[in-house]
Specification:
88 residues, 4-stranded antiparallel beta sheet, 4 strands, alpha+beta, 26% strand, 2 helices
């Protein structure tokens, strides 16, 4: 993917449990992705979200996004530079 200029970030966050979790997963984290730049698309399941950054500056955007999410994420979330989530 990187050779094509696509840099993924997957977050294994589990199913949101309550309003605060839902706000974090569905509002705060996507806002951070958009603010980081070059967000191309998002893929999600019930317990994970993958953000794909593409274009000029995509690698830097993925790194900035990862750092920003680490600042607000619960300890048990798994944030990886992969196209599929990693739970362990």
């Amino acid at each position: 993917m990187a050779t094509r200029g696509i840099h993924p970030v997957s977050i294994a966050h589990g199913d949101p449990d309550g309003h605060a979790d839902a706000e974090l997963v569905f509002e705060s984290v996507p806002a951070l992705a958009r603010e980081s730049g070059t967000l191309a698309s998002t893929r999600a399941g019930n317990d994970y979200t993958t953000f794909l950054f593409a274009g000029p500056g995509a690698e830097e955007a993925a790194v900035a996004f990862t750092a920003a999410v680490l600042g607000i994420a619960p300890r048990w979330w798994r944030i990886t530079p992969t196209a599929t989530p990693v739970w362990r």
